[in-house]
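Hi L.,

As promised, Calnexin-like:
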Amino acid sequence: MRLWWCLVALAVVLDCCPVHGEEDEEDFDMGDEVDIEDEPEPEVVKEKVIVQYVPPRAKGPTNFHDAFLDASAIGKRWVQSSAKKDGVDADLAKYDGKWSIEEPEDQPLQGDLGLVLKSKARHHAIGAMLDKPFVFDDEPFIVQYEVKFQNGMECGGAYIKLLSQTPDLELKNMQDKTPYTIMFGPDKCGNDQKLHFIFRHKNPVTGAYEEKHAKKPSGNFARIFTDKKTHLFTLVVNTDNNFEIFVDQASVSSGNLLEDMTPPVNPPEEIDDPNDEKPEDWDDRKKIPDPDASKPDDWDEDAPATIVDEDAVMPDGWLEDESELIDDPDAEKPDDWDEDMDGEWEPPKIKNPLCEDVGCGKWEKPTIPNPAYKGKWKPPMIDNPTYKGEWKPRRISNPEYFEDMEPFRMTTIAAVGLELWSMTDSILFDNFIVTSSRDVADEWAADTWALKQKQEGASGSADSVVSGLMNAAQDRPWLWAIYALVLIIPLFVCFRVCFRRSPSDAGEAKKSDAASPDDETKEEGEEGEEEEAGEEEEAGAAGEEEGEEGEGGVRQRKKATKADLEQSADQEDAPAESTEAAGDTVRKSPRKGKGKTRKE
């Protein structure tokens, strides 16, 4: 039964392991001779299925969509910025990062093109005007695009900016200060991973714009920066102010523009008066020193904290003439020591072994805490009778207060732009779409991203489970403990099942205990002798075993009964009882059910 459970446990563990090959369907006869060189096993080559790219078509109204069908679109539809970044050194101020429309390095769809950021450690800026400006009126806003970090991501962004419609908007002059309505997309530097959703809200009182940031997504999206696959990013902002963010069509964040943005869209009705000042006579001290307290006459502020222990005496055995450190007698001057260059060689110092017991060197009396020490005197603290509490400025009406219950109605969007800095190159963008229909966006994704996902998933399916677990643990470190338990528990159970001792084995071990010579000389047929009653003198046998002369030692055996035989199988060996009589040894066997011994 134990072997059966062991096999079951091993089967479970092996079943959890990935299988990287196929079993041979034919049985192999160990008696057959096979010439490995003459009959090599054919190598199985898995052919990669090539899927021809079919340009997608938007199946409904859009404000913008681009699948990069034209490799020469840069300079036409897509305009590269030639501006300079303000407040940066001249060498870095230019937006001179290179862009290209080309096929991915690992092509899931034959003939598919995308917009690729080609340079690292450079400022990049490129944009395209919408076919139709998006006006935030009575329809949802949806923007969707693909990103593929072909070389992973060390530090940089792949977010987009939906540029605001302004009279002076020129894509060739686009820079970091170009007004935008929404910024959306992934960003990473080191371990700081973000998925931005920022919108600029206009204060209807002052006319100033302020950035409103959505909370950090709760879903796991760390894998997008490392797996080198195509990922789909979707932002949906509804007319009721609710928004939702999707990565690969899975929701990772949602909220409301009025409730889940930082800082809040609507400012507080009241604020602290910036001109209010605390009065000079305002006492905000809870405790004060007691003005009526005085230092006691016997308080000595000059007394030291420690004094010499005058009662101390030098311990016996203290070696005042010995040094605490001595030259190492085992040290030798190195062969390459040059006294002209290195100076006179001196052996290193070690602790004097003679000082280990008591001590060496000049003995001085130790110091002890001074019982008269009190330190600097301070008056005790009492409640402040003039305490007025913590001062706070008075509250006044916020002169910039407003209440905007429809923050969805943002500034009209006129263009899509990419204004990025990256330490990693070869970031591919593809299949942009801006629309007010979720169905149109989903169908666009089905004709583009879904096909790529299928192809990339087929090529990397072997690592998908492991990479998924690793990525999940990046945001949730406590998952490592669960992974460890999942691995350790089956191994522990398998070990326990395979190597634990069963009760029957324990019984056999007791019966076969080699502590008694009676058991070693026991032969078949002694069962009949166990039924005989009486006592047997062992003096002769004892004399032979001990090799002594004199009176023979007598060993008596109690008549073995059936109850004794049954009981002896479950009892542990009892220590032998010994008595001495006239120099002879008398031994009583603890195994009453084992039968008589024979004279040796």
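DSSP finds twelve helices and 29 strands in the chain.

Thanks again for sending the construct details.

K.
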